[in-house]
Amino acid sequence: METAGYFDWQAAYGHMHDSFPAYHERPVIGITGNFGDKGCELAEGYYASVLAAGAVPVVIPPFEDRDALAATLETVDGLLLSGGGDLNPLFLDEEPVPELHGINARRDLAELLLTRLAYDRQIPILGICRGAQVLAAALGGSVCQDIGNRTTEGRPPVKHDQQLDRACASHTVRITGDSLILRPLLGTETIPVNSFHHQAVRNPGPHLRVCATAADGVIEAVESAEHKSILGVQWHPECFILRGDECMMPLFRWLAGEADSFRRAKALHQRILTLDSHCDTPMWFPKGIRFDRRDPNVLVDLHKMTEGRLDAVIMAAYLEQRERTDEAFLAATAKADRILTQIEEMAAANCTAMDIAYTPADLPRLKRDGKKAVMLAIENGYAIGKDLSLLRHFRDRGIVYMTLCHNGDNDICDSARGQGEHGGLSAFGREVVREMNRLGLMVDLSHAAESSFYDALELSDAPIVCSHSSCRALCDVPRNLSDDQLKALAKKGGVAQVTLYKGFLRKDGEATILDAIEHLNHMVNIMGVEHVGIGTDFDGDGGIPGCASASEAINFTRRLMSERYSEADIAGIWGGNFLRVMQAVQDKRQT
């Protein structure tokens, strides 16, 4: 693919990347250790299978220090949850049944925490036997303490706790037809497995789904319901492999392959800058969110940006379109100022970990300093009312773009969801575009009507952007961009940023990361890869399975890699293209 025209991040970084791992290194798989007479131990089959799959095994002993567990996960590219004793039901808010076997509370707590931390960091996971149960328990599901107590709904029970040699199959399981991981790996509907358990997953929870069952309905395998690299099987595939039967090697090759993809994505994120061109996190400031914590109320915070290896976001001061009176305009301006102040205060309160960026050149500097970056923007020109001088005021406050409208016509232009009041840009709107050009502010046409889009495109003497938009050819809603708009935008040097709002990705069914990639690919086919990027709309209804928050940004990178985009292409998509336009606009600043 073409790579010309990118902002030169390699030059900006100098030789920072020289110390990062090369692509030829093997992925590292962390394997959870069991407990024996002398403490931590591990059966040979686990590490032998990982080695046979081409990865490097390391043992993770059970310990409960959260910071140490998090640091351990930074050293691995995949996680294998090994088998072992029963889960302590007290950790699952249950009382023990008489059939409960031996437990180890220290291992349980450590592995439940480790699994959740790995999930938050998008680390590929394979759970085996007890490990499948740990997956479900850690991710909001539940475990049956003893499957002998479950109701089989008229189906004859299967003996799951066998006394056979562990390399021998004891019963069969049926893989569901909609399995996206297990069935493609094993290539069949019914497989013979070995079985040595009396506990099993009862409910996979919100993040997993059942992908295989035994004849009596016992859950035998679970996999991600969110297009992530997570798989759990109730049987012991490593026992087959240790005895020379490679029928289960696809499971370990899958883990090694997913870990290698994750490893390469991590290394790529070290070398490039990643920028999300639009999030609405300030909308949640009145709820008292904590940006320095992994706050469950928002999709973007410092922890999630770190987990997803996202370097920078553009936070919008969003204004709902309301009445257009002098009093309302004053209130809108005051609200925009208040939100910008709140962003600045948030950055000041976390100054060791983040800072405000005002130019493209600020971003690599902050990354070198180990800080996350936030840029400022205004969503809805309603913030300036009818006062052109306010553009300079907000420019001086540090905004890099202003979205001309939102869901409703204003005094600047018609909205995609408006009444066509002006037939495009108003006379005042034309002044606004010219003044934004003069001040070095990017003109953002997301939310604008087609008439407004073409008027601004023709009038502007600098490239324009659509900070969070998708393709009308794939999802026919007025808010999306037609192919003609995409072509026209590219012809004038602008960029369109695919957004992760489900309603703009597909009209029917649940949108996922696969739909977002389809929209991005369509944009690339129409515009060229140098005119496309990502504006998630996180915390403004953006977020889809597979890329549901800033912590999952690296999942998008892995999808781009699997689509065979080059490193230069991915650098452009993840912000380089948008920043090229920002630089061009700021270079035209006249005052």
Biggest sheet, strands in spatial order? 4-1-5-6-13-12-11-8-9
Q: Write down the Rg.
A: 26 Å
Provide the residue-averaged pLDDT. 93
Helix content: 25-40%
| Helical segment count | 18
Give the overall silhouette: elongated
Structural class: alpha/beta
- Number of strand segments: 22
Strand fraction band?
15-25%
- Characterize the largest beta sheet: strand count, sense, and whether it forms a barrel: 9 strands, mixed
Name given to the CATH homologous superfamily of the largest domain: Metal-dependent hydrolases
Number of domain units:
2
CATH fold descriptor of the largest domain: TIM Barrel
The N- to C-terminal Cα distance equals 38 Å
* CATH class designation of the largest domain: Alpha Beta
Tell me which CATH architecture of the largest domain applies here: Alpha-Beta Barrel
Spans of at least 5 consecutive residues whose pLDDT stays below 50 are: 1-5, 12-23
Written account of the structure:
The chain is 35% helix and 17% strand. The protein is of the alpha/beta class. The protein folds into 2 domains: 19-146 and 155-264, Class I glutamine amidotransferase (GATase) domain (Rossmann fold); 273-587, Metal-dependent hydrolases (TIM Barrel, Alpha-Beta Barrel). The protein has a 9-stranded mixed sheet, sandwiched between helices. Strands 14, 15, 16, 17, 18 and 19 form a 6-stranded parallel sheet that branches. It has a 3-stranded parallel sheet with strand order 20-21-22. Strand 2 (34-36) and strand 3 form a beta hairpin. Helix 4 (105-120) packs across helix 5 (130-138) and helix 8 packs across helix 17 (553-562).
